[in-house]
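Your task:
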Amino acid sequence: VNYVQKFVDTVEVKDEDMLSNKVNTKWLQRMVAERLQKHGHDLEYAALFGQKKLTTDTSGRNVAATEGAIQTALRGWTGDLSGSLNAVTLEKEFSRVFSYGGTTKIAFCGRDAKPAIRNLFENRIQVQDVETVNLKFSYIDMNGGRLFLVDHPFLDLASGYSGYACIIDPSTFTVCYPSGVTLENGAKFDGKT
């Protein structure tokens, strides 16, 4: 069981800013766009790297953090291809994820992982009489399923995951809409509205 993490971002306009010429429609739209970008970044970061925990804040309310895909994978199935990366071991390890769930999977690849995988197949392509070759490498079909390979900017040297690929089954993700009471007037709301 995973926890549902609440993400809240606000745009604050101070009274002194409201009285100045600084605040106008374009300024407000830019601030909202910046917050939305940060909000999306935070959601994606938690979905990938989140650490599952339940704590309380200073007022005694429960605060939950969701477990991300990498932590979930570390509790379950992981495969290590670091010492023997070849087409056979790649297919053997990657095909294991197709034994459950949907037939479409997404591999979020670190900066070094996708080029290493691509390199396994580039030397098999014969290009003697071809002037142009498009080596766009975006998916692998195997074991009755399709594995999409996506470069992920968070899986870089700074994160320590540049040589990793984290495989996700999108059919297992569910959007959770909160319900509760509004902060302003205490009215009840359904998060889907």
